[in-house]
Design goal:
Helix content: 25-40%
Largest sheet: 5 strands, antiparallel
Distance between the termini: 42 Å
Order of helices and strands: HEHHEEHEEEEEHHHHH
Number of domains: 3
Radius of gyration: 21 Å
Oligomer: single chain
Number of helices: 9
Strand content: 5-15%
């Protein structure tokens, strides 16, 4: 018998914002249109997909303490498929220092004050009272999970919880792992590749330039901004064949300059194409 739904409901009633996770620790979508992230949402779900679901679709944004939602018929089938419980540390007012290997655990024991700990498959979660910005790879094998992030529930932990130490506040100020250098990429353009039959080349050039600016100007929600921009470009020009690989490469370069990986750009383009039935 799957005890995950019962455990999740109990955690929610205790005030922990929970969400269902797959076997690979990815969140589920909360509706059929968003299952497997078809709507363009990101699997680590700092940004929910641009859909019209009754609740936010992905990741930390889907986590809730409302027993009526956790135990609802809409979520019942998903909980039955779930293989783990996720939770939103920031929503619970805590920060998780995710130590992914023994070297990271050793570093923590030498540099961080003791707090509540939970054993993981490869290391430990050190849980502190208070919230900070979530940042991956602050050091080799160490992620900080708090606001706009989710962690896997692995049990209540041992030891008393202490406040987030100054060193963790300092770690999240440091840039995470180096972002990819923006570069021109080659990706398949829609069939055609000729001049747009209903809009002038000047119109197309202005549209691509504005799309680059829209991505560049995104101050937050970059993942969603990239997806929406790709969707708009494909909606206007994807079927007539006027887009070339050079046009697409410019959009990818703008997205990479904002920190998107090539894989995420390719996924967003594919998701936008799928959403438009291309």
């Amino acid at each position: 018998m799957n005890s995950i739904p019962t455990t999740a409901l109990g955690l929610a009633e205790q005030g922990l914002p929970v969400l269902p996770l797959r076997a690979d620790k990815r969140p589920f979508g909360n509706c059929a249109a968003c299952d497997d992230l078809a709507c363009g949402g990101r699997p680590n779900m700092r940004v929910p997909g641009p859909c019209a679901c009754p609740w936010p679709c992905h990741g930390w944004a889907a986590a809730t303490t409302d027993p009526a939602v956790v135990g609802s018929p809409q979520w019942a089938a998903t909980w039955r498929r779930a293989r783990a419980i996720g939770y939103h540390p920031g929503g619970a007012g805590v920060t998780v220092v995710d130590l992914d290997n023994q070297a990271a655990v050793t570093w923590a024991r030498e540099n961080l004050p003791p707090t509540m700990t939970v054993a993981t498959t490869r290391g430990e979660h050190w849980i502190y009272r208070g919230t900070v910005r979530s940042v991956n790879t602050v050091r080799e094998g160490i992620d900080i999970k708090s606001t706009m992030s989710y962690a896997r529930w692995l049990g209540p932990g041992t030891g008393p919880m202490t406040d987030v130490p100054a060193i963790v506040h300092e770690l999240v100020k440091v840039k995470p792992a180096a972002r990819p250098t923006p570069r021109t990429v080659t990706v398949p353009a829609p069939a055609g590749g000729g001049q747009c039959p209903h809009r002038s080349p000047v119109y197309l050039e202005r549209g691509i330039a504005m799309s680059e600016q829209r991505i560049t100007a995104a101050a937050s929600g970059v993942h969603a901004a990239v997806y929406r921009t790709f969707l708009a470009v494909l909606s206007a020009h994807g079927r007539c064949g006027c887009l070339t690989e050079a046009h697409i490469g410019r959009l990818f370069t703008a997205a990479q300059a904002k920190g998107e990986s090539l894989r995420h750009c390719t996924d967003a383009w594919a998701n936008a194409s799928t959403a438009l039935g291309m």
